[in-house]
Design goal:
Blueprint (H helix, E strand, L loop, with lengths): L3 E4 L17 E4 L4 E3 L4 E11 L4 E6 L2 H7 L1 E4 L2 E2 L6 E8 L5 E3 L4 E9 L27
Antiparallel strand pairs: 1-4, 2-10, 3-9, 4-8, 5-7, 5-10, 6-8
Length: 140
């Protein structure tokens, strides 16, 4: 499969998988952005993609940014028909301001095959072992 990339900002790192076997490729900040504690921002990546039909781009946290600095991505599904700039929603859950400098890794994207289902309204659902037991129903 080929993923077409349009670079909207010329002096940012090119998209690539960092290591053989990596599931996702890195996305980079296209400009300097500071995020105060508990603030949400959109981070420009400077790229637009042509994701093939039947696939979606899933945006995920960079584990180091998440674990070390409390940064989480928001709203991470990019549909195949979208051709605009990829913007990454980020929230800072830490107590310190974090600054992305232009060219720094901000998130990662996994390209995944999408299955579509026929959505059918039903008055009843089949029984299951779990049933309607919700949060914490399987124990600690």
């Amino acid at each position: 499969m080929k993923l077409k990339v349009k670079y909207l900002v010329k002096d940012i790192p090119k998209l690539a998988y960092a290591k053989a076997g990596d599931a996702a490729f890195d996305l980079y900040s296209a400009k300097d952005v500071s995020i105060a504690p508990m603030e949400r921002v959109q981070v420009s990546t400077g790229v637009a993609l042509e994701i093939p039909e039947g696939y979606a781009g899933l945006v995920w946290d960079k584990s180091g940014l998440s674990h070390k600095f409390g940064l989480r991505t928001l709203g991470g599904v990019i549909d195949s028909g979208y051709r605009g700039e990829i913007m990454i929603g980020i929230i800072n859950l830490s107590k310190e301001t974090y600054t992305f400098e232009k060219g720094h890794k901000v998130a990662q994207m996994l390209i995944q095959k999408v299955e579509h289902c026929d959505i059918v309204e039903a008055n009843e659902l089949s029984e299951s072992e779990r049933g309607s037991n919700a949060f914490g129903s399987t124990g600690k």
